[in-house]
Structures are given as structure tokens and as C-alpha cells.
Write a structure and sequence with these properties.
Layout lengths: L2 H14 L15 H24 L8 H16 L3 E9 L4 E8 L9 E6 L11 H4 L15 H9 L2 H24 L7 E5 L2 E5 L2 E2 L2 E2 L10 H20 L12 E4 L2 E4 L14 H18 L6 H11 L18 H12 L1
Antiparallel strand pairs: 1-2, 2-3, 3-5, 4-5, 6-7, 8-9
Helix pairs in contact: 1-2, 2-3, 5-6, 7-8, 8-9
Length: about 350
């Protein structure tokens, strides 16, 4: 980028500054020098993205600032050879977007790979995550247990630094779950790599786009029962390896060439360590049974959930002795109250 282009871009940033930056903050105005410094920093970040773009050109025609943000997110993944091009956005979501990518030399056996790019922490709501985080070990950006007292304290306080750590831990847990479940031969996309806010995995679909989710498909009656049994077999694989999906439904299962692939694991919970795990598990099973009931498959979701749970040595909290309930857990407290009034 030339000096004139840099100045033009800085002018654009200046025009985009809202009146809020001109207002007093804590009784003092933001100085022109400070505003100029901010604009220059933003401009230089943009220039760095443009310099990288000369080496890593997208086929996907992203919006100007989406391109700069995407380059920053995918930089390390591209440098390590997992992707060589971004072809199109395959799926947009509130938490993350999935991009159809051409593989690099590190994933040469794949025809296409998917880059799941999480939105920045500031653009997602972490308020409803706690039921899934119960019993979890927080992980750092490398997937290792967070043990430094300052980091543990920040997470407990939920300050800005702590929320950033929680965001990274959320993504790290998904990648670890995918690695473990793929090794266990569950029907999921093969995970290749993770860096920052990005997970690279096999792309389920073709050059035209992603495979449809199961809720978009009307199954032939002859295939509905075998597919239901296959999906439930995957539910059991997850359970036997210490996972409950946590958000499993026809919306989180891809259907491609007669086969199902389970996706989206950041909220996966431990059946042993999470105090809400059986309730979450029963909800997953019920959602699946509801979909397949519309495809002509009869089942008893409550009995199925309890039988699978018991078969793997777990006991629903509803069946626990009162001394084993946790009065600080909302679900347990409700059970305690119900038993007290019985």
C-alpha cells in the first residue's frame, strides 16, 4: 500500500469514528493526538493484512473488513499448510462461520477442508455457557490445563482477560473432543488443526457447498430406521468415551450421500463430572427421537436415554440419594425441594 493509500484509509477510519469518541470520558476529552494514534495503529494493522494478502490471495470475495479479519484469523493455519485458499463461505452462524477451503500440503489427502472461524469473544454471548462448563477444566490456547493463579483468578472474576481465556477454552474443548471422538471412530469430520479462533477439519459436501443438515432432509422410509440406529450408535460412542454432545439435534447433523456426520462440539459435557449431564443427555436423545418420529421411526426417548445412561454405569441425578445432591446446583436444588414436599 502506498503512502497516499494509507492516508486515504486513515481518512476513512477518521470518518467512521462516532460522536462518542468526541465526548468527555471521565471528565476529559480524548485528545486529537490519541485519536490520531488509534487511527494510525488501525491503518497499520490493515496494511499488514494487505501485505499478507499478496501472498495468500482469496478466491472468496469477502467484504473489505471481513477479508482483513479473516486473514488475521487464518494466518497461522495457512502458514502451517493446512489451507491454501478460501473458496467461499459455506455457513454463517451466531457463534462461528464455516468456510470452504482448498487444502494446503499438510492436508493434501483431502479434496476440501472446512475452516470453522469463531467470532471474536466480544461478538458472542457467554451468559448461557455455565451449564456446559460445569465440571470442566479450563484450557489455554495450546489446549493445556490453565493453572496459573492469575489466569484462574481472572476466569473466576470474569474480567476482560478472564472472558478472553474462557473464549479460548471453549474452542480448545471442541477441538479436543473432536480429536478424541474421531479416534474413537465416531461419525464426525476429521479434525486437522487448531490455531486461535480457527478449527480446520474435513469439509462435508462438495465444491457447490456444505452438505445439508438433517432437518433439511426428508428421508426415505427404508433408510430412516438404519440412519436412526447409526446416529444412536454415535450417541453411545460419545457416552462411552466420556462425552455428551449437549446440543444434538437434526440441526447439528450433516447428511451426505446417505450418511450422517455429527458436528459442533464446543458445549460437549462430561457425563461423570457435569451435574446437569443426564438432563442434557436426555434432551439430546429426545430431540433426535422427535426428528426421526417424523420420518416414521417409533421410539421411547425417555426409556432410551435411561437405558443408555445405565448401560454405561451412570445414574440419573433424579435417582441419587439426597446426600449426593448439590444444593448449590439449580437442578439439584429443585429436586431437593420436590422431595421435601413429597
Amino acid at each position: 500500500m502506498s503512502k497516499n493509500q494509507l492516508l486515504e484509509f486513515m481518512d476513512e477510519l477518521d470518518d467512521s469514528i462516532t460522536d462518542e469518541t468526541e465526548q468527555p470520558v471521565g471528565g476529559a476529552r480524548v485528545s486529537k493526538k490519541r485519536q490520531s494514534g488509534r487511527r494510525e495503529k488501525d491503518a497499520r494493522l490493515f496494511v499488514r493484512a494487505q501485505e499478507f494478502a499478496r501472498e495468500f490471495q482469496f478466491t472468496y470475495q469477502a467484504a473489505r473488513f471481513e477479508e482483513a479479519w479473516l486473514l488475521g484469523a487464518l494466518n497461522e493455519i495457512a502458514e502451517h499448510g493446512w489451507i491454501s485458499d478460501v473458496l467461499k463461505k459455506a455457513k454463517g452462524g451466531k457463534e462461528a462461520s464455516v468456510y470452504l477451503c482448498k487444502p494446503g500440503p499438510a492436508a493434501v489427502e483431502a479434496q476440501f477442508v472446512a475452516a470453522k472461524v469463531y467470532r471474536p469473544r466480544t461478538l458472542r454471548n457467554l451468559k448461557n455457557d455455565q451449564q456446559y462448563r460445569d465440571g470442566r477444566t479450563d484450557l489455554d490456547s495450546e489446549g493445556n490445563k490453565i493453572y496459573k493463579s492469575a489466569e484462574v483468578h481472572a476466569i473466576a472474576k470474569r474480567n476482560t482477560f478472564g472472558e478472553a481465556l474462557r473464549h479460548q477454552s471453549w474452542i480448545a474443548h471442541e477441538f479436543r473432543a473432536m480429536e478424541n471422538l474421531f479416534a474413537a471412530q465416531a461419525d464426525i469430520p476429521r479434525p486437522y488443526a487448531r490455531a486461535g479462533n480457527v478449527i480446520v477439519m474435513d469439509f462435508v459436501g462438495d465444491a457447490l457447498g456444505s452438505a445439508p443438515t438433517l432437518n433439511e432432509v426428508t428421508l426415505e422410509r427404508s433408510e430412516a430406521r438404519p440412519l436412526f440406529e447409526r446416529v444412536m450408535r454415535n450417541v453411545e460412542i460419545l457416552l462411552s468415551h466420556g462425552y455428551v454432545h449437549g446440543d444434538l439435534s437434526a440441526y447439528n447433523i450433516l447428511y451426505w450421500e446417505g450418511a450422517a456426520k455429527l458436528i459442533d462440539f464446543p458445549q460437549a459435557v462430561s457425563p461423570k463430572d457435569n451435574r446437569n449431564s443426564f438432563r442434557i443427555f436426555a434432551r439430546d436423545v429426545t430431540r433426535l427421537c422427535d426428528y426421526f418420529a417424523k420420518q416414521g421411526v417409533d421410539s421411547d426417548p425417555q426409556r432410551l436415554a435411561r437405558d443408555l445412561w445405565a448401560a454405561h454405569g451412570f445414574k440419573p441425578r433424579e435417582d441419587l440419594h439426597p446426600r449426593d445432591l448439590d444444593p448449590e446446583n439449580a437442578h439439584d436444588r429443585q429436586l431437593w425441594e420436590q422431595r421435601g414436599s413429597a
